[in-house]
Write a structure and sequence with these properties.
Rossmann fold; transferase; alpha/beta; 2 domains; Polysaccharide pyruvyl transferase family protein; 384 residues; Polysacch_pyruvyl_Trfase; six-stranded parallel beta sheet
């Protein structure tokens, strides 16, 4: 029996790296028995994912394929059929390696929070062949549900929800194949690396994304709140600010945002940028663990802060942030919904974080061991 991970994508999103490495640790099988499809094999090798899984390079799109796809887009108006054609080209060579004795693990995390996509395609193709399929460490809100998603949720052998709010959404669909465990990345340990220059004094780590800002711009409602927050930190505290990119994909690149922030504040000497691109996930976790406070948009950056007991504010825009914070019994003040943020909401949450720093840190230290221990149950989830 082998385990196949078609939705690994690649470590250009350090969250994908984290999920795949943690999943391999949880499974406890050799790298030869865990096979992951990668859009960027060279990067994944640099991140040492090959120590955990066998990395299979995804097919490239040839000129012939691109022409064929363009012609189809002109002749076929049904977007679902067009996507099916593209998914077939990309995923079928990988899926065709999977036998009925194998297991497919769909590691997309929050992929079901977005439009109908390849999670559905890969599951349906394997369901037709009687292959066991697990939706792994997922989040999905009621507002994200579509008829196609509901149908494929029923076709997964088992569903591993990473927080209780998602589990409730799935239970409300009368699904009987749902189990709840913390996100697999909670089990990963920080990997020591050289700290950036910011750490000559206390540091607040700040991770931002275009999703929470609403654009690659600070000229948005939430961008104004971020500016207010940074102004407040510079004026009212002695903290250095370390901007921490966590995703490097085109159209999602956090480095664009952090450069905008640094430029807006005229490269203030108290604002630093972490060279995250040169670090793997666990090294970034080590840097985050040394911060006095952390504020983050990317779920797996926030998980690094939680798991190392750093007082943290999650900048949420979906069910996942609220669900994880709820399961950790954290105050609602520590999750800021970027889509519903009123004036000074971020500054107010930061002030709450500072005022309650010791209690929050102690609470995380108290709950984290038992919370992480829950992940041990995933092993029996796999084999039962």
């Amino acid at each position: 029996m082998n385990f196949y991970l078609p939705i690994h994508l690649d470590g250009g999103n350090r969250g994908c790296e984290a999920i795949t490495k943690a999943t391999a640790q949880i499974l406890g099988y050799s790298p030869q028995e865990i096979i992951a499809l990668s859009k960027n094999q060279e990067l994944d090798n640099r991140l040492h994912l090959g120590d955990f899984v066998t990395i299979v390079k995804a097919p490239t799109t040839s000129l012939t394929f691109r022409i064929h796809r363009k012609l189809r887009s002109i002749l076929v108006q049904d977007k679902a059929k067009l996507n099916h054609f593209s998914y077939s080209h990309y995923y079928d060579p990988f899926l065709n390696q999977i036998s009925s004795d194998d297991v497919m693990i769909s590691t997309g995390g929050d992929m079901m929070c977005y439009v109908n996509n390849e999670v559905i395609y890969t599951n349906e193709e394997l369901h037709k062949r009687g292959v066991k399929t697990f939706l792994w460490g997922c989040s999905i809100g009621e507002e994200n549900l579509t008829p196609e998603k509901i149908s494929t949720l029923r076709h997964f052998t088992k569903i591993y929800a990473r927080e209780s709010l998602t589990a409730k959404v799935l239970m409300d669909l009368k699904l009987s194949n749902v189990f709840t465990f913390p996100d697999p990345a909670f089990i990963l340990q920080p990997e020591k690396c050289e700290l950036p220059a910011a750490f000559f004094r206390d540091v607040i780590g700040l991770n931002l994304s275009n999703f929470i800002l609403g654009d690659f711009s600070l000229n948005t409602p939430f961008g104004s709140e971020v500016i207010s927050l940074i102004n407040s930190i510079l004026k009212d505290t002695n903290l250095n600010i370390l901007l921490i990119p966590h995703v490097f994909w085109a159209n999602q690149d956090d480095r664009i945002i952090v450069t905008l922030v640094a430029d807006y504040f005229n490269f203030n000497p108290r604002i630093f940028i972490l060279d995250s691109d040169s670090l793997n996930y666990c090294q970034i976790r080590y840097v985050i663990s040394k911060c006095r406070y952390f504020i983050g948009a990317r779920t797996h950056a926030v998980i690094s802060a939680y798991s190392t007991c750093v007082p943290t504010i999650a900048l949420g825009y979906s069910i996942k942030s609220k669900g994880i914070a709820k399961d950790l019994e954290l105050p609602e003040n520590l999750v800021v919904d970027s889509k519903k943020c009123h004036k000074k909401c971020l500054v107010n949450s930061f002030e709450y974080l500072v005022e309650n720093e010791n209690q929050i840190r102690q609470h995380l230290m108290n709950v984290m061991p038992d919370y992480i221990k829950q992940i041990e149950g995933v092993g029996s989830f796999i084999v039962d």
